[in-house]
Specification:
3 domains, 7 helices, 159 residues
Length: 159
Amino acid sequence: MGRMSVAEPANKINYLHPHHRSMARALVQGGLRNKDLVVMYGFSAGQISAIINSPLFKAEVARIEAQAEESAVDTVRDLTLMKGRAAEVIAEDLYANDRKLRSNTAFEVLDRTGHPKGAPVQKNLHLHQHQHVEKDLGKMDNREVYEEVMNLIDEEDEG
């Protein structure tokens, strides 16, 4: 190989060979260490270090990373752009002629807004606000309590 001139640093490469580009791609993909590159490419640890620290090699790594960044999918941005159209499709489905489609869409919307299909319906009654309820529910049997509650539900639905 010969001696390098004093003016030229040891970590400088003047040309990127195909194996240099391959090393750069391998490093950008991640998970590799210098000793992995030594085994993969058959260079000494010193040679790998000189290649990796070369400004030309660093520029190649930066170029590959920038290219990967440009082509990467920005999922959050894409979903944000799609949500308006998704809402339109849901609205179209809710007014479609197909009853099953309308029903399924309605259930999906309800499910995603905190009202899942098959969840028990809860009705909150404030028995203490109804003056005509007997004061001592403890003296009533289960059937009487049930009838009283059902009457209150009917009254609230009507009112």
